[in-house]
User: Fold this.
Amino acid sequence: MEENNLQDQLYGFLKANPSQAFPAQTLVDGLHLPGDNAFTKVVQALAALERDEKIKVNDDGAFQYNAEKEGVIGEFRANERGFGFIRYDDNADDIFVNPDNTMLALQGDQVRVKLLNKGDGNRGPEGQVVEIMHRSRERMVGEFKLGSEYAGYIGRITLTDKKFATYEFLIKEGGMAASDGEVVVATIDAYTTIDAPKQMTGTVVQKIGYKDAPGVDIMQIVYNHDVPHVFPDDVMEQAEAIPDHVLDEEREDREDITDQPLVTIDSIESKDLDDAVTVWRMDNGNFHLGVHIADVSHYVPEGSPLDKEAYKRGTSVYLTDRVIPMLPRNISNGIASLNEGVDRLAMSAEMEFTPDGTLVNHRLHKSVMRSHARMTYIGVNDILAGDKEARENYRELVPMFEDMQQLHNALAEKRKQRGAIEFDAPEAKVIVDPQGKPVDIELRERGTSERMIESFMLAANETVAMHYDLAKVPFLYRIHEAPDSERVEKFFDFVKALGCPVKADPNHVKPADLQNIHQYFVGKPEEQMVSTMMLRSMQQAKYSDQPLGHFGIGADYYTHFTSPIRRYPDLTVHRLIKWYEQAGFGSDAQTKYREQLPVIAEDTSVRERRAVDTERDTDAMKKAQYMEDKVGQEFDAVVNGVLKFGMFVSLENTVEGLIHTSNLTDDYYAYDESHMALIGRRFHHIYQIGQPVRVKLIRVDTEQSALDFILVDPDAAPITDIKAADDRRGSFGGKGGNHKKPGQQGRGRQGDKNKQAGKPKDHRAPKPRQNGSAQKGQHK
Assistant:
């Protein structure tokens, strides 16, 4: 029984008997759950319901429905027109809240919502905010403007977060003195009220710098997302006290593998090398794969200042020309970096695979290792491509790299056979000068060595997860659940309309079903459009204490083991491995982490999303800055999103922007939801996702990271016999359309579009780039 289903059953029973309280054992007995750990599962589900305040515990320790806190708890997503939506469940439709029922909640607030109606086939559910449980913002960031017409206020700040751009923020006397034009951080002393629904007030508590000073633009985003970026003194003191070499006493109880031909393979700019690999052919013809990961947990004791700060950060954050690390650099770039020629402590996963990529044996253990070569992706790609000089320079290692390629091919084929879905969407890095000004956008290329390391990291993550799932002990997993059946059904209808034969059941979809659809469209004009729609039908990957598998890579078992320098979940996994090695798998040993893991999973998932949002906003801002001097130029582009108010396009360099319907002046355009298309009512031109277009840049708003384009040749668009849907709400584009000026309507939707379920690529974080660019990709 899945965790959510168990919670639903318990909550439904207690709600149906609101006047009674039940001991946990009574609830366990009533459910008739199989297995020795039924009591544990029920207690965990009850604890989750209590955290959400859906149930309460009386003085006798019995559980009861919490009628005082009735409603759904979720995150409020505001719209500039006053209404909002509540996201509370990945598998459920967002709840619409009209302007009169928001309680003036702000973007990101955690709220409790009373459901007014459940909706129907045409409309989603509607609710009313009854309680603002937690404010998403306690501070705001903006440019200080001196002077105010209001008594008791010395000025105002122009908020830099576009989600709050329509709000007025007044600065009271009594805070830190700031000069006109400085970017500051202000506490929120008074939130919006009925009398002032668009006004907040506060005091300046910190100055970031002047608006145009190098780096201030990125720091505004860092502060807006409340990303911790300064290590406290006690954290630095603890980090600086760590020796810079492996001590003799640290070698005890560890396997010495310094003689194994281990190598690191990373980007040329990487300085935190946390994984080393080796492959060799065994006497029986099988492959030995060793994945050896820096033992960061040895240097970050549980509960220490270092540990608490790492947990608070959750992950390293990669922001174009800088990295906000999870751990101080003397750890990440020093004692925990697997530098060539020096001994390092490691956590090792040694695996045996048959020539066809089947795992037949594995072993997990602590070790002392030594990297024999610091290799780069470029160097290994040259070796595998037959470059004579590169092969001569590393002639002793060439046979191992060739074995690695063979094993990678077998592992990749194995993933393909089980239905793993792989999209090769372009990725880019923004190159900036020493002042932080963007000077170029370079497309990344994934060569054989990059894919090879990905295969090995995936194999290690799967092996570790399998080991502890089969042991039936509490553990931390990386999960990617099967898509919601309703979304899948809509996607199936969409591709059927494009001629793809679909025989799969949307209620029992398998990775191979989506893989087959993807393969059908490979090389066809609709490929990009179908890939985009497929991604949007999927759920987000996250952390969980439940072993629910990873749909995107078709894996029954998956965790994050390979990047403890950059991800707190990996650090936790290393601690769990050590604990079970020390204490065994008995019931006493299982107790230690059982209650912590659901909380760690939730918190680290939230912090991962915070990092992704921060990285995305920084990337969009730098791309907008790069395009600022290119207004008037023409570009080839592809439509990558279609909505009522226009279409988003992506240039070859991955820069995105909007063609608003008001700039489609050749016709009246209506949005056809069933085909995800804008269709001209007179001339029947159609625009859909994946369609190539030629565009001209007409406006760049660097403050809002927004670009507006127009079509260069509207007559080149294909003509369709699909009849344009009749939009009774009057939101047709073009002449006479009911919409706002270019760029005003839908700016908030661009972020939502980008946030929809993304690539299921997820093995380890790419390394920070030190030559003016630092980026982290999306991971499985």
Remarks:
- The two ends are 24 Å apart (CA to CA).
- The CA atoms of residues 297 and 571 lie 6 Å apart.
- The chain has a mean pLDDT of 88.
